[in-house]
Amino acid sequence: MRQRLTSIAFLVLTVLPLTASAQEHEAVTLSPFAGNLGNAIWTLAIFVIVVIVLGKFAWGPILALLQQREEFIHRSVSDAKRDRDEAEARLKEYSARLQRAEAEAATIIDQARRDTERLREELKQKAQSDADIVVRNAERQIQIETTRALQQIRLEAVDLSVAIASKLLQRNISKEDNEKLIDEALTQMQGSGGRFN
């Protein structure tokens, strides 16, 4: 509303001098240096009013907008600088973390290699130990079986000898006689150097 009144006042003040000067110009010839003091005063007054109105309603808001824009730009620059500094700090932090992670990974890999080598040695020693046990057990089993086979051969040899002797004697030998003959045969064999074990 206030702007409308100002616009109307401005219009009235500019139209009045123009109509007055139009009437005067009809009578006077036009000359750029021909002027009258009234026109100069009205022109000066209108110019001052226009400057005041523009200063109050146009330049003030324009200057305020420019000042706000300048403050916004300064804030944006300072925010950008702060963000850049934060980004650089984060980048340094991430680089340090990455280096620590790489060092930890290298340590873990080295530890895993050492553990693998240790486990390999343990398994190799256990396999060797197990193989030695199996060999000893096999040797013991072979020795037991050899002893058993020799005893079996002796018994069969004795039985065969008894059978041959009983046929020769044409009589049946008792178990006691059989054992005596076996003992005698063994004694004779051992005395002659014939050993079965």
Gist of the model:
The protein is mainly alpha-helical and 197 residues long.
Notes on the protein architecture:
- Helix 1 runs antiparallel to helix 2 (37-169).
- With 197 residues, this protein is mostly helical.
- It has three helices and no strands.
Rg, nearest Å: 66 Å
β-sheet strand percentage: under 5%
The overall average pLDDT, rounded, is 79
Helix content: over 70%
Identify the overall geometry.
rod-shaped
Uncertain parts? none
Helix and strand pattern: HHH
The helix tally amounts to 3
Distance between the termini: 139 Å
**What's the total number of strands?**
0
Helix/strand/pairing category: mainly alpha
Largest sheet: none
List the main descriptive attributes of the protein structure presented here:
about 200 residues; mainly alpha; about 90% helix
What's the arrangement of secondary structure elements?
Blueprint: H1 2-27, H2 37-169, H3 175-192
Helix pairs in contact: 1-2
